[in-house]
Amino acid sequence: MNGSAPTTGAGHPARWAALAVLVLPVLLTSMDFSVLYLAIPAISADLAPTSSQMLWILDIYGFVLAGLLITMGTLGDRFGRRLILLIGATIFGAASVLAAFSTSPEMLIAARALMGLGGATLMPSTLSLIRNMFDDPHERAKAVGVWTAAFAGGGALGPIIGGALLNYFPWGTVFLINVPVLIVLLIAAPVLVPEHRDRSGARLDLPGAALSMVAVLPLVYAVKHAAEITGWDARASLATAIGVVGAILFILRLRTATHPLIDTSLLRNRRILGALTAITLGIMAMLGPNMYLAQYLQLVIGQAPLTAALWMVPMTIAAMSGAMLAPQLRAKTSTAVAIAIGFTTAAIGLAVIALTPPSDGAVIMVAGGVILAAGVTTVMTLATDIVIAAATPEQAGATSAVQETGSEFGGALGIAFMGSLGAAVYRSELDNVGDIPAAARESLAGAREAAASLPEQLRDDLLAHANQAFTSGLTVAAIGAAVTMAILAVAIPWLIRGAEETASTGASEADNDPEKRSAANASSPVEEETPA
Fold first, then answer.
1. Are residues 181 and 213 in the same domain?
2. Looking at the 3D structure of the chain, how many domains does it have?
3. Terminus-to-terminus CA distance in the chain, angstroms?
4. pLDDT: is 249 or 228 the higher one?
5. 105-133 and 137-166 helices cross at what angle (nearest 10)?
6. Residue among 247, 260, 280 nearest 77 (CA)
7. Residue 96: per-residue pLDDT
């Protein structure tokens, strides 16, 4: 992988070409969270999975990815971030082919798990390489904006691309589209992206890596399981207890290990904690309503999957715009004020979503989603920049993985908590209606299935009640999320403002004084940068 391409220092134009290469795996990793949803009917018809197997097909990718992020980020720090990126891309591509040609539910579950393994190497590797390639804080903020836009855009593009493919091709094509993109990455990255690794001689803390998985995996499982059953049972409680114990042991290991996976000073920094909280809860606020939006467009209004996906395009554009414009907003105000504006915007978007009526409300729903998406990605971009800017060069991968783990938890929490709250309201409203089929009480999809076998008048009455109950649940969930965003608009800026003033003063002095900038660079921990 060694060649003659130049390194991408602060003033070298190749860093932007390298960034273009690095957003490719970000797009794919994000897309694979959502691209599968539209393929569920075709997969069910072809492979006939049980309900439990289908849940694992959907969840195993994110489950494995979340559990391995910190470990894979640390491996990148130790052995080379570009190397781990390329290995992960190879695994991801091979697993995509395996998934596309799966002949049984078990084979597809295994393939999705391997995709999660590959995805866990891609996300922290790309973000840590950006941290190393962009020394200038203003350029780095723009680069993080591009990265965030790709992440947000990938999640929104997944259903659109999936819907288009499924109109003409078998369900396996939703996985095969990964392959040509990854081939481009594998060819271009060794040429354009410089290698970075920690040369301090620190060993990989294997007990710490194991404890990180013991902490993360049970907690992610608990949240996902609670979302599936729309409640909290003994299994979720047990998994939570195991995860909490694992988290305590992991923190103790970080404090006692000679070479801990993560710099413990980061966990004591209120600015970093504020940024991680913003990332986790910001993602939660965006993904929860997205789940409702897809169901509203398809189940309440009755749109086809591809039509529903196209209605979500404005949200994609808004999300990418928010990410790209966040650095300019910060330049005109400050990080704290810009984050406050982002959270306030998100709260307004959720308030608009809460106004969605039981019928003909697509315009209101999408308008609220556009405002929400712009606000959340503004927060995501600025908070992510805070986290990776605080990382030492040696631990950029592990620190980026912590940020990604927060995103994973946020997504799971959004679907679990907003989904559970909406489901509770849905059932409560239908309990007050007369004779309702049991399937209709479980979900809006169940109501539509039950209504299909009823006479016309009964069918229309059932669907009217179900649509009203669904939008009532949506309203309650959106209001709860809006209140949360409004609180964060005050709390997060308060957490980071004091530290920001000190950091900004030091950064401004260094930016304006070449000698101070050189001295700061000279005093930074030594890390090897290998040309491509």
1. no
2. 3
3. 7
4. 249
5. 160
6. 260
7. 94
Cα angle 348-354-356, degrees, rounded to a multiple of 5? 120
Paired tokens of 313: 């395009």
Tokens of 316: 């994609």
Last residue of a domain, one of 258, 282, 298: 258
Neighbours of 25 (CB within 10 A): 27
- C-alpha 485/C-alpha 352 separation (Å) is 13
Single residue among 193, 225, 258 that ends a domain in this structure: 258
Q: To the nearest whole percent, how much of the chain has pLDDT over 90?
A: 20
φ/ψ region of 463 (left if φ > 0, alpha if ψ in -120 to 50, else beta) reads alpha
The whole-angstrom distance between residue 136's C-alpha and the CA centroid of its chain comes to 26
Instruction: Confirm whether 1 is domain-assigned.
Output: no
Q: Is residue 517 part of a domain?
A: no
Residues 288 and 300 in one domain: yes
pTM above 0.90, yes or no: no
CA distance 306 to 308: 5
Would you say residue 264 lies in a domain?
Answer: no
CATH number at residue 65: 1.20.1250.20
SS in 3 state form for 14-68? Answer: HHHHHHHHHHHHHHHHHHHHHCCHHHHHHHHHHHCCCHHHHHHHHHHHHHHHHHH
Residues 235 and 323 both lie in one domain: no
